[in-house]
Structures are given as C-alpha cells and as structure tokens.
Amino acid sequence: MSPQPQAAVGAPLSRVDGRLKVTGKALYAAEHDVDGVVHAVIVDSSIGRGRITSIDTGAAEALPGVLKVIHHRNAPKLPYRDNSASNNPPEGRRLRVFQDDRVRFHGQPVAVVVATTLEAAQHGASLVEVDYDAERPSTDLTEAEPDEPTRYARGDAEAALRSAAVRLDLTYRTARNHHNPMEPHATIARWNGDKLTVWDKTQWVVGTQTELAAVFGLDLDAVRVISPFVGGGFGTALRCWPHVVVAALAARETKRPVKLVLSRKQMYLGTGFRPSYEYRLRLGSDRRGRLAAAVHDLDAETSSYEKFTEAVLAAGQMLYSMPHVSQAYRTVPLDLPTPLWMRGPGFQTASFVIESAMDELAHELGVDPIELRRRNEPAEDESSGLPFSTRRLRECYSVGAREFGWDRRNPEPRSTREGDWLIGRGMAAGVYDTARMPARARARLDADGTALVEAAATDMGPGTYTSQTQVAADALGLTVRTVTFRLGDSLYPPTPPHGGSMTMASVGSATLDACNKVRRQAIGLAVGDRESPLYGVAADDVVVRGGRLHVKNDPARGETYRRLLTRNDRTHLEADGSFAPPSGPQRHSFYGYNATFAEVAVDATLGLVRVRRVLGVYDAGRIISPKLADSQAIGGMVGGIGTALLEHTLTDHRDGRIVNANLADYLVPVNADVPDLKAIYLDGEDREADPLGVKGLGELVMIGVAPAIANAVFNATGRRVRELPITAEALL
Q1: Is residue 371 annotated as a catalytic residue, yes or no?
Q2: Which of 337, 606, 623 has its CA nearest to residue 463?
Q3: Are 241 and 270 in contact (CB under 8 A)?
Q4: Which domains, from first to last, does the chain contain?
Q5: In whole angstroms, how far apart are CA 628 and each of 15, 433, 436, 649?
C-alpha cells in the first residue's frame, strides 16, 4: 500500500498526558482510591548478616489501630515457584520474604506492621523488637572472594601487549549509584477471593504479574497489575521487589486492601542499584595510536544470594578496531541486596573506563582525541564479524567538533585560565545496544472517527503515551487529538520491560502493525463498497489523512472513516498487532552511537568542578518526537553529571549500613548544577532494526557524559582522576 503521510511522527509535540500531570490528575501507585485500604510499614533488619533469634511484637500489637504484625514465625509458607523463564531474574535464589530467620543484608524486611492508619503502622513498626545472632557482613568489593569469571577473547592479547610500542596499565573505580526517582516505590494490593489486583510502581506490569503469580502459586490470569503513571525509574522498577510481595501477603492475611509505600531511606535498602566496579584496563598501540591489544579485568558487586550481571563487556569488544582482546568479568558476592540495571547499564561503566583510557593514550601520543578514535574506527563488528546496521560515529565526531568549537581547545593541560578558574574541554564516544523484544498491541477505530490503542507498556517519563499516539495517528491517518493510547495494565496486550531503550522499537512497532491492519481493513471495506467514492480503486492507491480516505493522487476522491463505517453499519474496526525481532542468525550488529563534548571550570585553589556546557550528537535512528528526545537527552546529561561528580553510595563495612541513605547526603544534581546542554540528532533511520527505523535513545544519552567530563577535568588541571565521582579532594 502507499506510504502513509507523516504528520505526527517527527513533530515536536507536547506530552498528551502533560495536562493530567501538571494538574495533579495523573494517579501514581499510592494515589489510587481503593475502598477500605489500610496501611503497612516494613520493619528493616538492623544487622548486615546473621539470624533472627527473637521477635517481640507485643507493644506494636497493643497499639490502637494495629491489625497484624507479620514475620517469619507467623507468615504462611509461600510457593515461590520458579519464574526464570518469564521474568529473567539473576542467577541464584531470590529473596523470600518472611520464609526463614536468615538476614542477608542490612535493611532486609524482617516484619511488617499493618494498621488502619499510616501513623499507627509507623509507630507500631518502631515498637517491634528484634534480636539477632549477628555476624560481620562482607560488603567491601576489594576484600571479598570473586566468582569464576566470564571470559571473552580474540587473538592473543597478552602477547600483543608485550610487543606493543606503547602500553598503558590503568585501574579505574566507580561508585555504587542508587536510582533515586522522585516517586518512591509503592504498592496497593487487594484480594477478591483468589484473585489479586495490585496498583504498583513498576516498569514492567507483565513482569510483576508473572512474579506475583509464581510467588503465590496463582494462574497468570488471577493477577492484575495496574500502573498508568510512574514518577521516574531509571531501572529501579524493572523488577518485582520483595515489598510488593509483602503488600500482597499483608492484604491476604488481613483480608483488607493494603497500601505500602517505601520511605526514602528504604529506597536504598532493597530496590536495586548500579554496582560498584574495580576495572583494570591494559592498552597497547603503535606510535600512531593504532590499537593492537586490550586486556580488561573487572570486579563488580553482586549479592550473596543472586548473581547480577550486565552488558559491561560489549563495548570493549566492538567500539574500536583491534585484533587482540581479552576480558575477564568477575562478580563478587557480598552481603548486599541484589543490584539492578540503572540507566545505560554496563555500557555506562565501560564507557567511563574505555573513553578515559583513550584520552590518556591520546595525551601520551600527542594525538588529538578525536583523531585517535578515527584511526581506530572498525569496518565491521569485530566481536561477531557482522556489518553494522548503521554506524555514523565519524559523523557524530565531525558535527560535534564543529558545533562545540573543538578547534579552540588547547591540548596542553592547565593552559587555559579565567581568573581563579582552570578551563578544560573533553570528549568521549558512547555506544548502546539497540534492544528489541516481542510486543503486542491492540487498535480499535470507532465509527465516530476516533481510535483507541492499548498495550501493557509503561511510561516512567520518556513519553510513551505521546510517542505511541504519534505512531498510531499517522498509521491510521488521524490527528493526534482523535487517538487515545492506553497503557499500564496487564489486561492489555503484553509488552517487554520499559527499559533498555526498547519501548519505542518494540511497542511502537506493534502499535504500527495494529494500526496498519485497521487502516487496511477500512480501505478494503471502501474499495469493495459500491456506494463508496473509492469503489474499485486499487487498495495500494488509497491513503488516509485527517480521518479521510482518498486516492493518493486525487485528494478530492474519497470519504471519511465516519461516513464509511456508518454506512456499513460498523460500530468499529479492530485488530491486534505484534512485533518480534527476526528469528534465525543475526545479519547485522545493532547499536546506537554518540559523541559527547564537555567544558568544565575547576577552581584552582579549592578543586571545585563546575560543568559549563555539554553537547551530545547522536546516531539514534529515526526520532519520533523531537521534544521528547530533547527531554531524554537533557535528563541523560544531567544524570551523567551526577555520576561524574556527585553520586556515591557509602557503606559502613562494620554492619553493612548505608550511611547516606537520604537525599541530603546522597548528592544528585540540582538546578544549580545544570549547565548549558544541547543535543543534536543525525537525520536518518535504521530499517534493519525495526519497522519504525528507531534505535532507542533513553540509555544512549547518558553514556559518554562521565568520561567527557573526566577528560575535560584532566585538560583543565593536568590531574587524571580514575575514580568516580571526581571529588575536590582528588584535585587538591
């Protein structure tokens, strides 16, 4: 059929749900009005490892309003069926709430108090007395015994390194980071007989549904998960955490709907984090900077009961051309909760190390950092031998250098000064996997000319409501205001997790398929209807614009959806759509790319770092919504500033307690930290990746920011800092 006119896709539209949000009508997990709801507050362990020897709940249970205190001595045994096939959890045995007396990390839920008011539940939780047989926890990455490594190798990296003309041996350290979204984790759980409904903060309603069904031994259709709005996530809500099970258990035990909201402190205790790394990288090159070998040795945190891994090795295998690569990735089991993906997972950490090392090599050789990267640009993905679907990194460098004014950078460290401030400029490349997973959507066109599209997707901030509406509007030939997109309910067609930058490619392609099918139904109805102006026209010659079907080259010949459906006594047309990546051997290597440029000012006396501007240039395929893309890019840059200069979770290794589990002591960027930020998107698309031609943007925009800032700090001060965050102390 003829290509549909594209009026909505590519337009800088405001969010279709924006009015709901600014007027307070968008309901988040804890805000749903559920009749008879009572409140639950979790009691956290005060030790980092050991066993519970006694629990005294008498004082709490005597409080007016307290309904029940649940703990391992009175909780029912739950089935906790295996859920590895559908939920893809880390290897190991997931935490099972109130099923035994073991404490595996500081802050683990050991009891929950349920009361008629939040205040009574909070007071009751403070009165529960728990005694322990405590052991000293192991929480220090540098002192614990690692697991057997995951390895990758091509060529003979050690031999090539020994014979290289230039060799670098560098060790980098990155801090543990917590997600810290604005909305805390919250769940409302209600049972109706053996059927469970939960309103939950989640980035994957299907994942929460499958996990609750597995934990309680239910059929999948006995669990409904509702999550229409999510107040930020960055990955923290990609998993169904123990507090969700606690809420559902408390509701079943009290036979009342239960609301459970984690405190800000509790957000640090059991809802995931970006693990800290110790990452040694050895590089070898010739005198012109052509890379010969790289040896990567990584140690990363995980919990003692699950083995969390992320895609930290991929960038080192394919970002630059070199014949010899060796990698060893070791997880280190510690007495901590299990880590989880955080924005740009794996690639964010790898990019800091690789891109900082490339800057060090450029300085060692006296070569411009961009030129060094160009000299090592691969012709294909050397980890797989596959051609890149698109790879326009050279263009990212050129556009970025021009727009940033890279030619004005003095390569000599500590050479540019403005009063007390040392000025530096740095850059870094970034890469992120173009993730796609099977997804489904349902579209319905009503006789009044409006459309409804549904999918069990999520919107934690990137604008899923808006971007999916844009895709649906163009596919159906409708205006945006006549299309409604619904998400966040497990009753809708299933979709993959809202993470990994896969929503637009996966759900968007399913939405496109469903809406294309509905439009084709309407066209088929019209060209076969003797009363239609389109009767007898080839279906391929009909397009739809503004709700009106017409001949492509004869706009006057046509009719509206409303007239067509009404005349044919149709209340609606409906179709299910789907998307899945091609099966069989992969034919291309799919990644998105960026070049990030940063300018910093460093106080020569105090060592304070101020980021003055950041520019990102992105090879991210087709941009569906430029305004939303800018929002994503700005947010990613701000997150990168936090990683580079501020964010650091601190642990007291004596008892495993997180010292700065609050927003006063865990520093995140605020308005005063945000400089001039600019994003540029290369015009293009990737039709090999998906029907929409998108690559994904949300993860990519953060990757490369931290090393660009670190490299700018070196250019400003001459001091190379290989540990994040970069602190004033490191520069004094």
Answers
A1: no
A2: 623
A3: yes
A4: 18-25+437-579 (3.30.365.10), 32-135+186-232+237-265 (3.90.1170.50), 277-435+586-731 (3.30.365.10)
A5: 8, 20, 20, 30
The C-alpha atoms of residue 284 and residue 167 are separated, in whole angstroms, by: 5
Which structure tokens are listed for 371?
């030129």
Task: Look up residue 200 and give its two tokens.
Answer: 């939950």
Instruction: State the number of CA atoms in the 13 A half-sphere of 282 facing the CB.
Output: 18
Are 121 and 115 in contact by the 8 Å Cβ rule? The answer is yes
Q: Are 533 and 542 in contact (CB under 8 A)?
A: no
DSSP string spanning 618-643?
Answer: EE-B--S-HHHHHHHHHHHHHHHHHH
* Predicted pLDDT at 447: 98
Q: How many residues are listed for the chain in this entry?
A: 732
Provide the Cα torsion 194, 197, 201, 205; round to 10°.
80
Q: In this predicted structure, what is the pLDDT of residue 53?
A: 98
Closest CA to 385 of 586, 584, 581: 586
Contact between residue 428 and residue 594 where contact means Cβ atoms under 8 Å apart: no
Query: How far apart are the C-alpha atoms of 371 and 391, rounded to whole Å?
Result: 17
Residues in the chain, pLDDT under 50:
none
Q: What is the pLDDT of residue 1?
A: 62
Give the CA distances from residue 334 to residues 308, 576, 631, in Å, rounded to whole numbers and listed in that order.
11, 46, 37
Structure tokens at 431: 């890469």
Place of tokens 């309407």: 522
- Residue recorded with tokens 């910093």: 600
Q: What is the DSSP letter of 386?
A: B
Residue pair 111/70 in contact by the 8 Å Cβ criterion: yes
Distance of CA 173 to the CA centre of its chain: 22
Contact 376, 391 (CB under 8 A): no
Write the DSSP string, 132-165. Answer: EEE------TTTSPPPPPEEEEES-HHHHHHH-S
Beta strands in 316-405 (DSSP E): 324-334
- How many CB atoms neighbour CB 254 within 10 A? 17
| Chain-centroid distance, C-alpha 677 | 21
- Beta bridge partners, 283, equal 168, 294
Q: What pLDDT, on a 0 to 100 scale, did the predictor assign at position 284?
A: 98
| Nearest of 334, 336, 253, 324 to residue 283 by alpha carbon | 324
For the question of whether the overall pTM of this predicted structure is more than 0.85, the answer is yes
Catalytic residue among 559, 574, 699, 729: 699
